[in-house]
C-alpha cells in the first residue's frame, strides 16, 4: 500500500514541498500518493501573489526569485516565453502568481497528485497508528494520511491599537486594489508600520488617491533601498569552514558568531557596527536618502545582512533567549531593513511625496482613539492628529495574543494540543527537520510545518529561497525514515 501524503495549503510553501518531493528518486515516488488542498483563489499562488493592482510589485528583482532556487533563471525564462519585458527589474506580484500557478500545474501532473479545491478546517491525529484524518469546509476526507505538511500561510494580523471593528479601520491592506481610492478627497490617512507592507500601501495610495498620508512605527525606520549589482563577495570570516566549526561546537557561543560578523564587517571596509549605523542608516526618510547617496556601501551591507540571516537559519535555534534579546537590541532591526530592501522607485517616490507635503513621518504615537468621524492619534510629543482612516500595515504574525483571529484549522490544532505557539511566534518545530513539536505528544514524526507558520523558530523565514531550502530539509528527513 502506498504512503499517503497531504499538503495543506498550496502557496509558496506548498509549492516548495511539492517541488522537493518531485526531486526524489523514482523508487521513492512510486511508493507515495500526494493530495494537495487549497481554495481555488489561492491554489498555486498563495496570498502574497494573488491577483492585485499592477502597482503591487514584488520587492525582489526578477533574477532573485524563482519557484526553484536551483534554477534562478526560470522566472525570467518564463517571462521571455510569454513575450514579456525582462529588462525591467521588478514586476507585479500577480504576474509572479501566474508563473507559480503554471509551475504548480506542471508538478501536479508530473507527480500525478490529487487536488482538492477545498479549505481544510480539521486535522485529527490517531496516536496509535500515527495517521491523520482531514476535514474540509465541505466534508470529511475518507483517506487516512501517513504524513501531513502544514503549508497554510494565512496568518492573522496584529491589532496593536485595538481598533478591530471600528469603521474606517482597515486591518489588512491586501489586496491593495480594495483600498479606498477617494478620488478628489483630501482626507488624511494614517498607516501603521514602516516595513515592506507599509511601503506597498504608501505607494498605492500615493498613486491612486489624493489623501495626505501619515506613517509611523515604534522603530521609525524604513527598509533600505535595494542596490542592484552582480558583484560576488569573497567572504573572509563568515566562511563555510567557520560555520561548520561553530556549528559543531558542543556549546554554542553567540559571542563567537558576533566576532565573525564584526570581523567580516571590517574586511568589507567598515570601521565598526556603531559607526556604520551612524553613517549609513537613519530613521525615516533620511534613511532612504542615505541608501541612494551611498550605493556602494549599502550594497555591501545588504549582502552581509543577507549572509548573516542565512547563518541564523541554523544558529538562531541554538541561541539562548538572552542572546536573542541582545541580538535584537543591537542588530535586529538594522539587519532586517538591510536584508529586506525596497525597490529604488519606491524610495524615490516616498522622498518626493515627503518633499511635496503629501507624506509625513510622525513620531511617538502612543495610542489611537476612535471618534465619531475618524481617529485621533495620541502622541508623547507634539499635538494630537486627526485622521479619517487608519490602515494597519504591520504584516502577518501568529502570536498568543491573536490566536483567536487565526483560521479555524490553526485554532483547532492548537486547542487539541497538536501544535503550540513558540515564544518567538509561529509554531514550534524541530528546526533540523521541520517536524512539529506538540505539547501533548512531543515531536510529531509525521507532521511538518513550513513557511510563515514557523517564522519564529526559523529566523526571517520569509524568502522563497529559504522556504524552499527548509522544505528540502524536511523531505530529506522523510526519506531517511524506514517507512518510505
From TrEMBL:
Coiled coil: none annotated. Pfam families: NAD_binding_9 (PF13454). It comes from the Bacteria. Residues 6-154 form the FAD-dependent urate hydroxylase HpyO/Asp monooxygenase CreE-like FAD/NAD(P)-binding domain. This is FAD-dependent urate hydroxylase HpyO/Asp monooxygenase CreE-like FAD/NAD(P)-binding domain-containing protein.
Amino acid at each position: 500500500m502506498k504512503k499517503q501524503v497531504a499538503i495543506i495549503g498550496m502557496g509558496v510553501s506548498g509549492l516548495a514541498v511539492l517541488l522537493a518531493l518531485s526531486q526524489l528518486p523514482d523508487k521513492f515516488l512510486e511508493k507515495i500518493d500526494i493530495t494537495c488542498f487549497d481554495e481555488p483563489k489561492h491554489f498555486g499562488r498563495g496570498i502574497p501573489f494573488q491577483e492585485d493592482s499592477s502597482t503591487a510589485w514584488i520587492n525582489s528583482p526578477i533574477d532573485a526569485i524563482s519557484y526553484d532556487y536551483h534554477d534562478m533563471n526560470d522566472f525570467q525564462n518564463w517571462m521571455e516565453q510569454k513575450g514579456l519585458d525582462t529588462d525591467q527589474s521588478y514586476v507585479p506580484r500577480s504576474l509572479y502568481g501566474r508563473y507559480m500557478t503554471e509551475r504548480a500545474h506542471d508538478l501536479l501532473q508530473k507527480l500525478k497528485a490529487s487536488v482538492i479545491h477545498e479549505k481544510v478546517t480539521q486535522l485529527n491525529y490517531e496516536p496509535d497508528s500515527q495517521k491523520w484524518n482531514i476535514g474540509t469546509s465541505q466534508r470529511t476526507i475518507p483517506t487516512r494520511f501517513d504524513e501531513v505538511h502544514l503549508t497554510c500561510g494565512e496568518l492573522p494580523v496584529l491589532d496593536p491599537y485595538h481598533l478591530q471593528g471600528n469603521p474606517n479601520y482597515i486591518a489588512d491592506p491586501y489586496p491593495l486594489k480594495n483600498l479606498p481610492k477617494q478620488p478628489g478627497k483630501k482626507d488624511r490617512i494614517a498607516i501603521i508600520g514602516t516595513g515592506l507592507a507599509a511601503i506597498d500601501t504608501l505607494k498605492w495610495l500615493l498613486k491612486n488617491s489624493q489623501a495626505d498620508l501619515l506613517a509611523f512605527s515604534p522603530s521609525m525606520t524604513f527598509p533600505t533601498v535595494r542596490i542592484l549589482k552582480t558583484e560576488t563577495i569573497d567572504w573572509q570570516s563568515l566562511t563555510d569552514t567557520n560555520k561548520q566549526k561553530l556549528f559543531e561546537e558542543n556549546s554554542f557561543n553567540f559571542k563567537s558568531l558576533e566576532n565573525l560578523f564584526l570581523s567580516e564587517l571590517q574586511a568589507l571596509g567598515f570601521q565598526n557596527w556603531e559607526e556604520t549605523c551612524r553613517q549609513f542608516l537613519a530613521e525615516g526618510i533620511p534613511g532612504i536618502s542615505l541608501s541612494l547617496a551611498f550605493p556602494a556601501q549599502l550594497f555591501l551591507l545588504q549582502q552581509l545582512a543577507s549572509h548573516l540571516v542565512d547563518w541564523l537559519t541554523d544558529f538562531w535555534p541554538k541561541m539562548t533567549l538572552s542572546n536573542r534579546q541582545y541580538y535584537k537590541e543591537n542588530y535586529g532591526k538594522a539587519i532586517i531593513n538591510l536584508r529586506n530592501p525596497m525597490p529604488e522607485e519606491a524610495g524615490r517616490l516616498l522622498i518626493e511625496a515627503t518633499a511635496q507635503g503629501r507624506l509625513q513621518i510622525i513620531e511617538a504615537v502612543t495610542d489611537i482613539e476612535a471618534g465619531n468621524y475618524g481617529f485621533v492619534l495620541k502622541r508623547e510629543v507634539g499635538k494630537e492628529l486627526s485622521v479619517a482612516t487608519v490602515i494597519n500595515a504591520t504584516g502577518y504574525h501568529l502570536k498568543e495574543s491573536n490566536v483567536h483571529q487565526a483560521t479555524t484549522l490553526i485554532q483547532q490544532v492548537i486547542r487539541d494540543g497538536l501544535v503550540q505557539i513558540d515564544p518567538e511566534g509561529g509554531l514550534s518545530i524541530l528546526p533540523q527537520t521541520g517536524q512539529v513539536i506538540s505539547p501533548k505528544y512531543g515531536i510529531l514524526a509525521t507532521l511538518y510545518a513550513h513557511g510563515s507558520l514557523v517564522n519564529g523558530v526559523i529566523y526571517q523565514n520569509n524568502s522563497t529561497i529559504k522556504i524552499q531550502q527548509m522544505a528540502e530539509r524536511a523531505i530529506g528527513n522523510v526519506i531517511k525514515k524506514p517507512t518510505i
